[in-house]
Write a structure and sequence with these properties.
Blueprint lengths: L2 E7 L2 H13 L5 E3 L13 E2 L9 E2 H14 L3 E3 L5 E3 L5 E5 L2 E10 L3 E3 L5 H5 L5 E2 L2 H4 L7 E5 L3 H10 L5 E5 L9 H9 L3 E4 L2 E7 L6 E6 L5 E5 L2 E4 L3 E3 L31 E3 L11 H23 L1
Helix pairs in contact: 1-2, 1-7, 5-6
The protein binds NADPH dihydro-nicotinamide-adenine-dinucleotide phosphate (NDP).
The site of NADPH dihydro-nicotinamide-adenine-dinucleotide phosphate has 17 residues, from helix 5.
Length: 309
């Protein structure tokens, strides 16, 4: 089997951008897109903050355009998930069940998955008032009453951001204290549009075609009540898609790929690079993911060049 120049594992803005750059550098990249190609943007509706689209664009349409651009320059795609990797040799091996692919360099862009509460009603109302991204969807809720679930920095940031549009934001947290950093807590607590409901878990998101509230249970008293709202934002963290990389690349305690030579995209293994949300615990935007995908492709070009000398 031929040894590929570069295999990109994962799609999304980082992967497709890496593919565009690698393809235009004549590296003939192979992308293993995953069964759910396109990443988190496939789950959003309108994207209003991606530069170049002043009227906004639907998330899936934006990803289709990224892919078409990667395809135009000759990227090849495999719509499957990687089951295992072997990065120990100079040639990197990637396994999709019983098939083996080999490459001189690898770019990991498998992204992160939003953590959800796991309620049936949450799934059913996704995009109909349930969201996991205030930056993406906040502007659709002007003048609305909103709920944010979670007690970390993400939840505080989302709650604060949402007060630009909402008439009121209620943060519902399962404990009586926040995990968020002091400065983020103080900011949220000082915001007159934000109130808190403590020690409370969500039993159900209410509504048929659109969110109209949520049913909650106080974990100390057992009392069940309803909180009316038109938007329900889940901000309980993200999980990087790195299960197949454990023991193969250095990961941080939360499972994100650690970059070892910033500002490059080099991981702990020579010849393996990472871009996008899989290595980003801070920004997690389509545009920052795309930018790091570009960096990874340029890093690969230089790495391959160095192998020839
Ligand atoms: P965290 O893991 O820090 O917080 C998750 C929060 O959600 C916790 O309060 C947790 O509760 C709660 N939670 C988790 N699972 C559930 C569940 N099933 N049901 C109900 N509640 C749940 O994630 P974040 O995304 O907030 O932050 C991740 C990292 O990113 C952190 O390091 C953070 O500092 C950083 N970050 C920084 C920002 C900034 O500085 N501007 C902005 C956003 C993130 P509990 O407390 O009970 O565990």
């Amino acid at each position: 089997m031929a040894i590929e120049n570069v295999i990109i594992i994962g799609s999304g803005p980082a992967g497709y951008t890496a593919a565009i750059y690698a393809a235009r550098a004549n590296l003939n990249p192979l992308m293993i897109e995953g069964y759910q190609a396109g990443g988190l943007l496939m789950l959003t509706s309108e994207v209003e903050n991606f530069p170049g689209f002043p009227k906004g664009i639907q998330g899936p349409e934006l990803m289709a355009q990224f892919k078409a651009q990667a395809e135009r320059f000759g990227t090849r795609f495999i719509p499957k998930n990687v089951s295992d990797v072997d990065f120990t040799g100079k040639t990197k091996k990637i396994f999709i069940d019983k098939e083996t692919y080999e490459a001189s360099a690898v770019i990991v862009t498998t992204g992160a998955a939003t953590k959800w509460l796991g309620l049936e009603s949450e799934k059913r109302l996704l995009g109909k008032g349930v969201s996991s991204c205030a930056t993406c969807d906040g502007a659709f809720f002007r003048g609305a009453k909103l709920v944010v679930v979670g007690g970390g920095d993400s939840a505080m940031e989302e709650a604060n951001f949402l007060t630009r549009f909402a008439s009121h934001v209620t943060v519902i947290h399962r404990k009586d204290h926040l995990r968020a950093s002091k400065i983020m807590q103080d900011r949220a607590k000082a915001n007159p549009k934000i109130s808190f409901i403590w020690d409370t878990e969500i039993l159900e998101v209410l509504g048929e075609e659109a969110v109209r509230g949520c049913k909650v249970k106080n974990l100390k008293t057992g009392a069940v009540s309803e909180v009316p709202c038109e938007g329900f934002f889940v901000a309980i963290g993200h999980e990087p898609n790195t299960h197949f990389l454990k023991g193969k690349l250095e990961l941080d305690p939360k499972g994100y790929v650690l970059l070892k030579n910033r500002p490059t995209t080099q991981t702990s293994v020579s010849g393996v690079f990472a871009a996008g949300d899989v290595q980003d615990t801070i920004y997690r935007q389509a545009i920052t993911a795309a930018a790091s995908g570009c960096q990874a492709a340029i890093d690969v070009e230089r790495y391959l060049e160095s192998l020839h000398h």
